Amino acid sequence: MENKMFCYQCQETAGCTGCTVSGVCGKKPEVALMQDLLIYVTKGLSAVTTQLRKEGKAVSEEVNHLVSVNLFATITNANFDREVMVKRITQTIEQKEMLLSQVENKAVLPKAASWNSDESAYETKAKLVGILATKDEDIRSLRELIIYGIKGLAAYTKHANALMKDDLELDAFMQEALAKTLDDSLSVDDLIALTLETGKYGVQGMADLDEANTSAYGHPELTTVDIGVRSNPGILISGHDLKDLEQLLEQTKGTGVDVYTHSEMLAGHYYPFFKKYDHFAGNYGNAWWKQKEEFESFNGPILMTTNCIVPPKDSYKDRLWTTGAAGFPGCGHIDAPYGQVKDFTPIIEQAKKCQPPKEIESGSIVGGFAHEQVFALADKVVDAVKSGAIKKFVVMAGCDGRQKSRSYYTEFAEKLPKDAVILTAGCAKYKYNKLDLGDIGGIPRVLDAGQCNDSYSLALIALKLKEVFGLDDINDLPIVYNIAWYEQKAVIVLLALLYLGVKNIHLGPTLPAFLSENVAKVLVENFGIAGIGTVEDDLKLFFGEE
Ligand code: SF4
Ligand code: SF3
């Protein structure tokens, strides 16, 4: 039977091989097809911009933003709206045509750079340019690994762009790498080299975002976040975009509406800037995949600033709003041109008519251990390592997901030796951040740096420890890596860690379906990448017999 679609970009892909009938995430074939075509035309545009740069011509920020938002919109659970994809395809072709006319040497361009058609041909074309259009399994695997890394990177770039930070070198790289995924002359070795280069730019992109976030909002600091509720109506803000959080908090001031964070937006509480808002109430709920129950009981509007949206139930669909690259058909979408203020009035007005959130949890969680906060505690941490009070750090960053097998991470955290400290970032932490794991001489046993992009902080912390202990190799540190992945942002985090020389990363709950046997072998042989086993076996592996 002919596939209706083919997508294997996330960890929950059907049968751990690929979604072919409909997405496990809820993505319909008609959306998947338009996403395939959007990626194709974005590659075409990228080939044109890359050639223009080679010819010494400038490419505008507007075009760079178009490319990164196109990529972002195709990340797992970011945007389910076919019409949005169609509009972006048309816009991308138009932009590409304009730029194509400026290219002197058109002969070097790939076919995608000249493809131009109206909407009536989109579907037919989409069926020809999806993932399976690359026949060689290893080339396909590497191309997709690079593309997924760049999708993750594009999301981070978009957040930095929202804070008016643009990195032209990074944009040029992303576009050049995308164009290279169309180049049939590149060998497996060339693409492996490009994969590592993508990791290098992954570090740069996360550093850019860190700089954008911290210069706008200060350095994250140790913070206790309430997980209960107050008595006012509330708005729940989810996703990763801190600029959206700022604008929402500003606009809800004095309205009698509280603002709560959800999932990855929890990290907003860690930044000093946001502490001045009295109505910034706390964090509601858990990681993305529990939203069907938690959005129901929240009672008020929910603003999704990025992935991860779960197709909403009718009971709260009218309360689900999107902005930026996120979208869901039938849900309200609020946006503004780059650099301008979004008007969240409709959401605030809706909130005023809603019941306050229903309490589902109470108490608090602690976080804010990004690089500066950990550096401030460096003496304490180093002493604890030297005295043997802390024997090992376990990096458990990454994503959470709905598969039952992910209870591994809760159990792993619970059964860790008591002298081990977890370093985390991303929504993976919801598997263990509400357990009472205690502290070691005042250092909490779960140090949460923030969002998945704040894995950058974890890398800086590792580099700092390497310096303090006078080591030559980052792998000589008492740090083990047991990372959970779900979507493409985790792919760029992984590639960034590989670029930094980190070896023996364990990746779970399953290895990516998009790694062919040979590509997986390269990762295993050169970087010691491995999957996970049982909790008991992995504890033995990481800590030996205690
Ligand atoms: Fe399937 Fe994941 Fe693709 Fe959704 S994003 S269609 S679940 S592979
Ligand atoms: Fe989570 Fe979607 Fe990846 Fe940013 S919010 S880590 S899954």
Fold and architecture overview:
The protein is α/β, with parallel strands linked by helices and 546 residues long. Helices cover 43% and strands 10% of the residues. It contains 18 helices and 15 strands. It has a six-stranded parallel beta sheet. Strand 2 (234-238), helix 8 (242-252) and strand 3 form a beta-alpha-beta unit. Helix 2 packs antiparallel against helix 3 (82-100), helix 2 (61-73) packs across helix 5 and helix 5 (137-162) packs across helix 16 (488-499). It is globular and about 65 Å long. The N and C termini lie far apart (53 Å). The mean pLDDT is 97.
Output the keywords.
alpha/beta; 6-stranded parallel sheet; 18 helices; 15 strands; binds iron/sulfur cluster; binds FE4-S3 cluster
Low-confidence stretches: none
Query: How large is the share of residues in beta strands?
Result: 5-15%
Strand order of the largest sheet: 4-3-2-5-6-7
The ligands bound in this entry are: iron/sulfur cluster, FE4-S3 cluster
Cα Rg: 23 Å
* Estimated helix fraction: 40-55%
Which structural class do the helices and strands define? alpha/beta
The averaged pLDDT comes out at 97
Q: Could you tell me the number of beta strands?
A: 15
Shape: globular
Quickly count the helices: 18
CA-to-CA gap between the ends?
Answer: 53 Å
Q: Main beta sheet, described?
A: 6 strands, parallel
In a few lines, what is going on in this structure?
The chain has helices at 29-54, 61-73, 82-100, 122-126, 137-162, 168-180, 188-217, 242-252, 291-298, 314-317, 345-352, 371-376, 378-387, 407-415, 455-468, 488-499, 517-527, 535-543, and strands at 223-226, 234-238, 258-262, 280-283, 302-304, 320-323, 332-334, 364-367, 392-395, 420-424, 439-440, 443-444, 446-448, 479-484, 506-508. The protein is globular and about 65 Å long. It is α/β, with parallel strands linked by helices.
